[in-house]
Each structure stands twice: as C-alpha cells, then as structure tokens.
C-alpha cells in the first residue's frame, strides 16, 4: 500500500497516510490527524523531478548516453 504525504493548511501539520490506490481514486478526503481539519493537500514528492529544464538530476536518463528520441531536441 503506497504512502502519501499530506500537509494541513489549518495547523501546518505534515503527515503521512497509507491508502490503497482504489480508495484514493474514489476521491478520498484526508483529515488532519492533529486538528481534524480537511484543509489538506497532498505533497508531491516527485514535484521537482519533473520540473522542466532540470539538468543533472540523474533520474530517468535525461540526455545521458542513450537519450530518448527528441529528448535533446
Ligand atoms: Zn491540522
């Protein structure tokens, strides 16, 4: 079961929850375990990985020895 990281806007609490993918796809409402608020949003751990123009991340090959077609366009 994957772990998701969430942040509470109400009390600025950062927490992790374990939820099955199917549950999450149903539109799970995550409550803050500290204050019970539902003003939570998911922290995407890979946010920076997919930022454009990044170089030297070393993730996914990029423009390494065998770049994907069009990668270095
Ligand atoms: Zn909270």
Please indicate the percent range of residues in DSSP E strands (runs of 2 or more).
Answer: 15-25%
Any idea what the radius of gyration is?
17 Å
Classified by CATH, the class of the domain at 3-43 is Mainly Beta
Low-confidence stretches: 47-51
DSSP helix fraction: under 10%
Q: Tell me how many strands there are.
A: 3
List bound small molecules.
zinc ion
Report, as a whole number of angstroms, the end-to-end distance.
Answer: 38 Å
Q: Judging from the principal axes of the Cα atoms, what is the shape?
A: elongated
General description of the model:
The protein has a domain at 3-43: Rubrerythrin, domain 2, CATH 2.20.28. It contains one helix and three strands; from the N terminus they run E-E-H-E. The chain has one helix spanning 21-25, and strands spanning 3-8, 14-18, 40-43. Strands 2-1-3 form a three-stranded antiparallel beta sheet, with no helix packed on it. It is elongated and about 50 Å long. Mean pLDDT is 77; it is low at 47-51. Residues 8, 10-11, 13, 32, 34-35, 37 line the site of zinc ion.
Helix/strand layout:
Blueprint: E1 3-8, E2 14-18, H1 21-25, E3 40-43
Antiparallel strand pairs: 1-2, 1-3
The structure holds zinc ion.
Key features of this structure:
73 residues; mainly beta; Rubrerythrin, domain 2; 1 helix; binds zinc ion
């Amino acid at each position: 079961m994957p772990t998701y990281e969430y942040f509470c806007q109400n009390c600025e609490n950062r927490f992790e929850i374990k939820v099955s993918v199917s549950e999450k796809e149903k539109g799970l409402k995550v409550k803050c375990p500290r204050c019970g608020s539902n003003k939570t949003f998911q922290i995407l751990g890979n946010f920076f990985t997919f930022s454009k123009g990044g170089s030297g991340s070393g993730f996914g090959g990029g423009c390494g020895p065998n770049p994907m077609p069009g990668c270095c366009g």
